[in-house]
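Dear colleagues,

For the upcoming journal club I promised to circulate an example of a predicted protein-ligand complex. I picked one with iron/sulfur cluster because it came up in last month's discussion. The inputs are reproduced below in full, followed by the predicted structure.
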Amino acid sequence: MTKTAKKEMKGKIVINRELCKGCKYCIMACPKGSIVIDRKFNSMGYFPARFEHPEKCTGCAICAQMCPEIAIEVWRED
Ligand code: SF4
Ligand code: SF4
């Protein structure tokens, strides 16, 4: 039996909480469940998204593509 070594990529996101309007699109889109809603609201009165599980992030960038406010930056390790 052969084993396929599939290395999963590591990623990191940075959410600009002041740009975020708490629409949750990124949360619904993230296949890893890495993002949650924060309990503290931002200066606009929205509960923004928070990067809760960085260890699960693959840097796939789906969250950033979904964000209508362009509030998410994605970094990926090669
Ligand atoms: S880059 Fe991908 S895995 Fe990481 S938080 Fe965004 S959607 Fe989730
Ligand atoms: S998609 Fe963008 S605006 Fe919506 S909750 Fe996520 S970071 Fe905030």
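Two points we might discuss: Residues 15, 20-26, 48-49, 66-67, 69, 71-72 surround iron/sulfur cluster (ligand 2) (CB under 6 Å). Helices lie at 25-29, 62-66.

See you all on Thursday,
B. R.
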